[in-house]
Amino acid sequence: MIRTTTRRARWLLAAAALLLVAAVVVIVVVTRGDDRPEGPAATPTATSTTPTSAPESSAPSSTAPSSAAPSSTSTPAPTVPPAVPAGLLGVDVETIPTDQPVVALTFDAGASSAGLPSILATLAEEDVEATFFLTGDWAAANPDGVAAIRAGGHRVGNHSMTHPHLPALSDAALRDEVVGAQEAIRAAGADPRPLFRFPFGDRDDRTIAAVNDLGYVAVRWTVDTLGWQGTAGGRSAQSVADRVLAALQPGEIVLMHVGSNPDDGTTFDADALPQMIDRIRAAGYGFVTLDALLGS
């Protein structure tokens, strides 16, 4: 009996020991499981500090606040004058340098716009493109006229802001005239660069150099129709056309005016334009804008 009891006690002690060991193992396993991260986001890896899958451009931008680099729209780029072709520097061009039978019709606009509707209608009907030299004052007062000129596919040039005698002005005042007109014309919807015509054709070496420095080619004319003189000057639509045909040559630049004579209200340049175009074509000539000076 005593042996049986002793043997049973040993078995109970062994079982208790086994239960104790099992309990310790369970506690250790559970504790270790609680310490482990629950998902891949918390797993520290080498790629968590070096995002090889991110775009290369993202790394530099993260080192500086976005406000440190202003956008292109917040600070307008400085306006750089276009380069004047070397062969056109220091001269007031009187003809397009070509042996081709072409004529450039040009119109100055600095006073009224009385002849403009008729001129644009004739050019459209005859499918002819011309060049219009605008003063800044005229462009500001006639934005619809500027729009109509551009809608007709015509070229625009700079004729100063207020149409003064430029050689009488200081360098600063001359610059204001040219740049002021440029900005007024651009505000009206056209860009006059790089063509410039001196008011009254009045220029000298200093003023030609000044407009060249501002990125403009100085353009004079081959023949002035003198239509602007009106009846008091003995002019007529016929005399206007006759003067142009008498001076006909390759590269001829014809000077006309958009406005009317202030004394009699005549618009001889506009009136003469249809027959002028017909007679020039009959002589075997075509028409170009002054972009032909620039090779375009």
From TrEMBL:
Return the CDD domains for the record: CE4_NodB_like_6s_7s
Q: Which Pfam families match?
A: Polysacc_deac_1 (PF01522)
Family annotation (InterPro entries): Glyco_hydro/deAcase_b/a-brl, NODB_dom, Polysacc_deacetylase_ArnD
The organism sits in which domain of life?
Bacteria
Q: Which residues form the NodB homology domain?
A: 101-288
Q: Which UniProt keywords apply?
A: Hydrolase, Metal-binding
Which SUPFAM superfamilies does the entry mention? Glycoside hydrolase/deacetylase
Using the UniProt annotation, give all residue ranges assigned to the region (Disordered).
34-83
- Residue ranges annotated as compositionally biased, kind Low complexity, are 40-77
- Identify this protein by name: NodB homology domain-containing protein
- Please report the organism this UniProt entry assigns to the protein: Blastococcus jejuensis
